[in-house]
Amino acid sequence: MATFIIMLGPPGAGKGTQAKILAESLELVHVSTGELFRALKSQDTDFAREVLAIMARGELVPDDVTVRMVKERIAKPDCENGAIFDGFPRTIAQADALAGMLAADFSDEIDVVLQIQVTEDEIVRRITGRAVESKAAGNPVREDDTPEGARKRYQVYLESTEPLIDYYQERDKIVEVDGMRAIEDITPDLCDEIRARVGSK
Ligand code: AMP
User: Fold this and answer.
1) Cα separation of 74 and 126, whole Å?
2) For labeling, which of 27, 125, 126, 198 is most exposed (least CB within 10 Å)?
3) How many CA atoms lie within 13 A of 9 on its CB side?
4) For residue 35, which atom of ligand 1 is closest to its CA?
5) What are 107-150's pLDDT values in tens digits?
């Protein structure tokens, strides 16, 4: 049986950071739709330009495009043991599509949804801090990591993604985690929750 975990929470909640750590320690593949889309920067196609323009505006890439991208990614052999989804699903339609894919291709379902809770002010502070740090380190700065970009993405989160909390609560998948703490304090909690849910499989 494979293990499938979702990191749910607003942009800047620390989903990516935690997903990377967990993926390494659990030997699962980290599937970040944001990273898959950012990789399109190297492509000179209308499709790539369209997706990147949507991202720069802080809006969501259409569900069909996003779902296709994930379907192709999890079909690769390295996902045989499972994956940690970071930034996906972001809409109810994506969550339904994911359930369909896991049932059809893996005869499986999501094990646990780790819902990382962080306040809006903290999100804007972290996202703008991330931009300053990247710049200082000489790394590329994400176009959407501005105070306006952060607030816009938070609004999109409230409208389209937050309803997933109820969706997964109804399916008894949600575990709430306090994200207002240091990275190294959050990781052990996440590991405990995963062990409690997955250990019995
Ligand atoms: P992230 O790196 O997860 O913050 O995603 C960066 C941007 O990529 C988002 O603001 C969206 O424009 C796009 N994106 C990432 N994941 C999704 C998704 N599941 N559905 C739609 N758009 C997405």
Assistant:
1) 30
2) 27
3) 26
4) 2
5) 999 999 999 999 988 988 888 888 888 889 999 888 888 888 88
> What are the beta bridge partners of residue 114?
7, 175
Nearest Cα residue to atom 12 of ligand 1: 55
15, exposed or middle or buried, with CB in 10 Å at 0-12, 13-18, 19+? buried
Residue 201: per-residue pLDDT: 59
From 60, 69, 154, mutation site for ligand 1 pocket: most ligand atoms within 8 A of C-beta: 60
**Which ligand 1 atom sits nearest the alpha carbon of residue 70?**
19
Give the number of the atom of ligand 1 that is nearest the alpha carbon of residue 153.
Answer: 10
> Whose CA is closest to atom 14 on ligand 1?
34
CA pseudo-torsion sign 157, 163, 169, 171: negative
- 68 assigned to active site: no
Pocket test for ligand 1, best of 32, 33, 55, 94 (most atoms within 8 A of CB): 33
Do 18 and 184 contact (CB within 8 A), yes or no? no
Residue type, 200: S
pTM of the model: 0.94
